[in-house]
Amino acid sequence: MDFNHIPVFFEQAVDSLNIRPDGVYVDCTAGGGGHSSEIARRLTTGRLVCIDRDPEAIEILHSRMDAFNEQYNKVTIIHNNFFNIKDILIRLGIDGVDGILADLGTSSHQLDTADRGFSYHKDAPLDMRMSKEGASAEDIVNSLSQKELERIIYKYGEEKFAPAIARGIVKARESSRIETTGQLAEIIKSSVPAAARRENGHPARRTFQALRIEVNGELDGLSQAVDDMFDCLKTEGRLVVITFHSLEDRPVKKCFASYCSGCECPPEFPVCVCNKKPRGRLPFKALSPTEEEIEENPRCRSARLRVIEKIEKS
Question: How large is the angle between the packed helices 162-175 and 181-191, nearest 10 degrees?
Answer without folding.
Answer: 130
